[in-house]
Every structure is written in C-alpha cells, then in structure tokens.
DNA sequence: ATTCTATTGTTGTACACCACAACAGTTATT
DNA sequence: AATAACTGTTGTGGTGTACAACAATAGAAT
C-alpha cells in the first residue's frame, strides 16, 4: 500500500465550520458552560441541579414534573436531582394538598441562603464574560438574537 | 406534616435565567443542535462524525490525534469514529510515510460526494435558521460576538 | 550505541447524561 | 363502575467523554 506524508499543521482549515453560526454557537456555549460547571462544582452541585434551584426558588410549590417540563427534561431525571438537593437540605418535598401522587417542592431556609450566594457567583461570572462585549446594547442584541434562534 | 397546594402554572418564572446570556446561549445551541443531529441521523452519521469529515476533507493527510486536537476531543475517541467512517467507505487510513505508528486520513471518492451532499443539507439548514435574523450584517455581528465569547 | 522519554493508536473503564419503557398508586373521565 | 390519564419511581440502554494503561515506534540525551 502506498505510504503518505502526514500533516501536523497547527493551522487547520475548519472549512464551513469557521463561519457557521451553529458551530460558533456550540463553541461559545461549551466554553461558557465549562467555567459554569466549574463554579457549580465548587458549590458541590451540577449545572442541572443549579437550574432546578432557580426554578424552585422562583416558583415555590411546583411539582417535580412541572419543573422537569420547565427545564425540558424527562421527569424521571428529576428523581435523583431532588433526592440530591433534599439530601443537601436545600429543598424539600412536601406532600401535595390535593393530589396524593405528587410532591410540592420548596426551598429550605438554608437553601435560600445557599442559592443567593450561588447565584451571586454565577452572576459575577456572567459579568466577566460580558466584559468581552462592547456595550450593554450589544448584549441586549445578542440575547435578542439568541431568543430568536431558540 | 402540613400539606400544600401545588402550582401548575404554564407561566413559569425563570428568574435570572431569563436574561442570562449563558442560559440563552445554551437554549439556542441545544435547539440548533437538535435539528442538526436529526439531519446527520438521516445521513447515517452523528454530529461528531460530521465534524471529523469536515476536518479531514479540508486537511487531507492529518493524523488521528491531529484531528482529535483540532476538534478538542480525546484521541481515544477517534478510534471508533474513524472505524465507523472507514466502514462506511467515506474515509481511509493510509500508513504514514515516515512514522509507522500513525495513519494519514484521507477522503475516499465516495466520501467526497457524500460530504458535498451532506454539507449542502447542513448549509441549507443554516440558511433557514439565519432567516430568523434581520440581516447579513446582524449575522456577522452575531458570529463576531460568539467568537469573542469562545 | 544505549538508555530514557515522548508519542501513536488502541483498549478498557468509569462516569455523567438522556430518552424510553414499565410499574404501582392515584386521579380524572366517561 | 370501568377506563384512561397522570405521578413519582426504577431500570435499561445508548451516547459522549474523560482517564489510565499498553505495545509499538520515534526522538533525545548521554
């Protein structure tokens, strides 16, 4: 079989990917998410668990499936998530008043403090990333465009 | 234990997430990626395999690890990927000329045709998504901002 | 030359994530 | 009263991904 030279170029042509919005979106999101995951990890949770906290904090009394639907997850994924957050004393399951099948999810007092501290760190991170944009107006435009692509 | 009403609001408060660039980035990317995955699936490949094709097509003769580095993957992930693409007769491993450890990756003729057909479909999809933006200038600005966030 | 270190492809493993099916208990509908 | 629909839960399988280890090979050091 014919043997061939390999190329070890540090300057690789990404072809259509270079100017593809889908690829750029993915790259930016992965970069953003990597640091966010790290922050969450320092807090002892995962990004998914943090998103559950956000929903429960702003919408006390939600059902597990309601939270799952809000986040676009399967409700089966909620079990382990709520188990974990409950074992950390951050949220609690209370039996629903008029439906013995379901639980209502609530923040504990400690969970509230934990959440405020956590979301402060997350907001700080957001701010440092936003410094890469030129203006608040640009940021608003970015969010607007991203919403249109969702 | 006190029982409590559940809330089944369709109008859920996403709190800090609603105006968070990180969250919006994730949402847009996931939405974008879901359809992209579907297109790839129709072609019989995965998004990861498609990205390998893009790199190999534009950079013939690359080593497996070079492709892995370009894509930010571990080189161990490349084995199954190249196995699959080779079994589909899309690319081929040729023994490297001056290094008996490594292979040089090349597109087959059929792989070339397959890739052109595939990237056409992917580009079409990109175009339909870009229709949600107001202008080409807006698209350029979006890509520019996304690059800054990477 | 010989030894030591680095690299390549490869395999195995472990872990996170996610979708899906199934189930018992409960509620809603007919 | 019967049937369908929904809740939390468990299990399973697929997928992606990071990491360690290995033999073969290459490069560097002495």
Automatic annotation (TrEMBL), chains A, B:
It comes from the Bacteria. This is Transcriptional repressor MprA. Residues 18-150 form the HTH marR-type domain. Keywords: DNA-binding, Transcription, Transcription regulation. It comes from Marinomonas spartinae. Pfam families: MarR_2 (PF12802). InterPro entries: HTH_MarR-typ, WH-like_DNA-bd_sf, WH_DNA-bd_sf. The gene is mprA. SMART domains: HTH_MARR. GO terms for molecular function: DNA binding; DNA-binding transcription factor activity. The keyword Kinase does not apply.
């Amino acid at each position: 079989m014919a043997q061939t030279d390999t190329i070890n170029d540090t300057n690789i042509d990404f072809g259509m990917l270079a100017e593809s919005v889908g690829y750029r979106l993915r790259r930016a999101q992965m970069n953003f998410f990597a640091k966010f995951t790290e922050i969450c990890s320092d807090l002892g949770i995962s990004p998914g668990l943090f998103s559950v906290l956000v929903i429960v904090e702003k919408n006390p009394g939600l059902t597990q499936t309601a939270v799952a639907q809000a986040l676009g997850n399967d409700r089966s994924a909620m079990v382990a998530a709520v188990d974990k957050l409950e074992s950390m004393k951050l949220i609690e399951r209370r039996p629903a008043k008029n439906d013995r099948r379901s639980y209502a999810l609530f923040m504990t007092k400690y969970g509230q403090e934990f959440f405020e501290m956590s979301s402060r760190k997350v907001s700080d991170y957001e701010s440092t990333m936003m410094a890469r944009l030129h203006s608040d107006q640009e940021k608003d435009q970015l969010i607007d465009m991203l919403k249109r692509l969702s």
